[in-house]
Amino acid sequence: MAAARPLRTPRLGGRFGPALRGTPLPLLALTAAAVLDAWAPFRTRFGPVLSAVPALAAATCTLTGIVCTGLLTALVATGIAWANGWLIDSPFRVTILCVAAVSVAALEAGAVRLRRERELVNVRLIAETAQRVVLRPVPERLGPVRLNGVYLAAHHQARIGGDAYECLDTAHGVRVLVADIRGKGLPAVEAAAALLTCFREAAHTETSLHRLAQRLEAGTQRHVRATNASSECFATAVVVEIPDEEVVRVVRFGHPRPLLMRGSGRTVPLTPPTSSLPLGLGDLAPKGHQVLTARFRPGDRILLYTDGVTECRAGDGTFYPLAQRLRHWTGLTGPAMLDTLRADLVRHGRGRQQDDAALVLIERVDEDRRDR
């Protein structure tokens, strides 16, 4: 996953953008009213139509644009009256008063709209910053591995949801967590933040993967107690450890099996002898955590993912065949593989992301290529 782009505040009206932003629509309405008046039968008046132009500006223009639109509307109304000899008529005076009154009201309405736009931008900026603090970009390189990541939130305006990941370079090797928190919305984001915080601390202090798994279980249960969450608050997860030796260690908590793609093109699932229960439910089966150790040579890759990938349904109800698809993409680079997978997943789900989905691709780099 590429580094996060710098946050930029959208340009708004007033001091947030050009003074006359949004004026084309009111000017179009003003032009239409003037043309109608020019082609209308004699003594047919369109003064009431002109009064609507400043109101339209309130919905699209800046404060400067609203004032300019009101003045221009009054000028057009005066020109129409002069051309037809209506300057001393009562209807003309009524039209000018209506344009002035509507312009003042439009100015107040525009000020309220712009203030709310600025507030909305600030809220979105704070939310985006908080999201990036919780779910940091996947680093391109850690120790002996190269990493790539993709996150697809089910909500089109969200950057994070119930899925979470973290990649850390520790004294015990590179450690990667991918988790899927049960539920949606803010409670799921809060639980994800608590789990990531626990992992970021324990991954550096615990020497064994078994002890790290115990810390994650204890941290999840502590969060459940602190938030008075129900017994149904849990998270499936998988933790992968890649030391300097050419091995990989895996512990699963009811999570989909990681897929090991050999350099030869063969894809095999990494399945520990037993899969532990999801985090938060460890008390129901206190037998400890089974750690799987497998060979992980240069050129090999491991794909970690959440069930939002494999449970994505097509129009006929079929699930996404992840392992089958990967066999066709073994020759692609890491970023190209994930980009292809993401596009294929969206296409399979007919453009609808039914659940949050997270993917992290880990590739072991040859010793001679580490510093390149």
UniProtKB/TrEMBL annotation:
GO terms for molecular function: phosphatase activity. The keyword Hydrolase applies. Residues 145-364 form the PPM-type phosphatase domain. InterPro entries: Bact_Sigma-Reg, PPM-type-like_dom_sf, PPM-type_phosphatase-like_dom. SUPFAM superfamilies: PP2C-like (SSF81606). PANTHER family: STAGE II SPORULATION PROTEIN E, STAGE II SPORULATION PROTEIN E-RELATED. The chain crosses the membrane at residues 25-42, 49-82, 94-114. Keywords: Hydrolase, Membrane, Transmembrane, Transmembrane helix. Pfam families: SpoIIE (PF07228). Coiled coil: none annotated. This is PPM-type phosphatase domain-containing protein. Gene3D superfamilies: PPM-type phosphatase domain. The keyword Membrane applies.
